[in-house]
Amino acid sequence: METRPVAVRLHPGQDLLVELERLFAQSKAGAGCILTCVGSLTTAVIRFANRPESATLTGHFEIVSLTGVFSPDGAHCHLSISDGEGRTLGGHLMEGCRVYTTAEIVVGLLPGMRFTRPLDTETGYPELKVETIKPDEE
């Protein structure tokens, strides 16, 4: 089955992760991914690699990259941003990222697939499980 694209534009002040999760939940799809995103933020909340806590950054940032997958269990997304000097930071996207002027996003819904996130005893985290499903199970 083919990927079904869904495009959305977020407005100033909207929370990037909250709106992405809302969009996916409304689709009632079993699996999805981010195809592309361009935009800007005034607040970025990122959990950097191997850190238990997130960092909150304020200013004006360009969204350089946004990648991720969606399941009914939640989203797993990574964000890269750059500041006015071109310095780039990235990590795990957290709630609290506020759109500055726009965020133009295309999400791909994946018919015939279901993503879940059961606890992985090897890592201790809920990790992606990919299932192929029949059209009548969607």
Which characteristics define this entry?
138 residues, mainly beta, 60s Ribosomal Protein L30, Chain: A, six-stranded antiparallel sheet, two-stranded antiparallel ribbon, 10 strands, 9% helix, DNA-binding protein with PD1-like DNA-binding motif, PPC_dom
Overview of the structural elements:
The structure is a single chain. The protein has 138 residues and is mostly beta strands. The protein has a single domain (4-112), classed as 60s Ribosomal Protein L30, Chain: A, CATH 3.30.1330. The chain is built from 1 helix and 10 strands; from the N terminus they run E-H-E-E-E-E-E-E-E-E-E. It has one helix spanning 16-27; strands at 4-10, 32-47, 55-71, 74-82, 88-93, 98-109, 113-116, 119-120, 125-126, 129-132. The strands form 3 sheets. Strands 1, 2, 3, 4, 5 and 6 form a 6-stranded antiparallel beta sheet that branches. The protein has a two-stranded antiparallel ribbon with strand order 7-10. Strands 8-9 form a two-stranded antiparallel sheet. A hairpin with a 5-residue loop joins strand 4 and strand 5. The longest helix has 12 residues, at 16-27. The radius of gyration is 16 Å and the shape is globular. The two termini are 12 Å apart. The mean pLDDT is 95.
